[in-house]
# Entry
Amino acid sequence: MAPNITSSPTGVLFEDDTIETVTLPTIETKTDDSKPAEKYKRKIVWRNVILFVYLHMAALYGAYLMLTSCKLITAIWAILLYQAGGLGITAGAHRLWSHRAYKAKWPLRLILVIFNTLAFQNHVYEWARDHRVHHKFSETDADPHNAKRGFFFSHVGWLLVRKHPDVKVKGKGIDMSDLDADPLIAFQKKHYLILMPIICFILPTIIPVYFWGETWSNAWFVVAMFRYTFTLNASWLVNSAAHMWGSRPYDKYINPSENLGVSMLALGEGWHNYHHVFPWDYKTAELGNYSTNLTTAFIDFFSRIGWAYDLKTVPMSMVKQRVQRTGDGSHDVWGWGDKDMSQEDMDEAQVINKKLK
# Structure
């Protein structure tokens, strides 16, 4: 029986393994409203610490090799894989399977499962479950990467310690019936420990060596280590930076923020204030500007050829009402300069924007 992967999104810790841990200061917590508070003992997972230290050191060396010795085509290959793996998370695990913001026919679902496995942030089932917990219990002890525990914890620290008991308790109550019924997700989950090393590390390393004569060292450190680590950190910034820094034009009472830098690195996932207010919108942003939301462009392309359909979005009237009710006043003119907007809509938006200021 294969061990159960328990630390997402990287999947480097297994439930059945014996891990050396260290106990840090305890925190008062409740894992159930009907029970008295228990002592939560934070335990460092030292194997994860060692693996992440190696991973980041190898990535730094890979960045050096990328600038000094690897072939241009190898650097391009690494960038393309970063984009593909990122889409496996953003368009796949996140927008399609976690939020059901659109539907996809099996060829697109197959592509996204392959891309998701390339990203190695755990199989779709566990990624989606933890993300649904994150939204339902955002920034509480039940949130896997609770940003209230600081930047380091929400960025990577949550993967270096055992999960808070509330994460497990609340996670068991999340409805996952839609993914339980998906044979493609079941296949990935069942064979993940075989598929992941091949798709994420072995093939990306072998292809540059055998197809254009790259060295094994450059292929491993640039394409495998640097590309993978860069993808991880781009995703982690959504949990950390985008929950701390930026404007809150839709809801000033929550921490998720609009962060341009994160959106550019994470293929459109940095418009986080909007996303937490309207999580069902397939764009995860109001206008879906392609230059800062590559994932929306990807989904729109497959929508045009019929592989993506039933794309969910939010009526402009609902967005305006929410901005006026709970926004921080930083909202720009709705759709200004957008060729799909009528002049009447733009005039109305401009009037509302003046009132907000």
Remarks:
- The first strand starts at residue 23 and ends at 29.
- The chain has 15 helices and four strands.
- The mean pLDDT is 86.
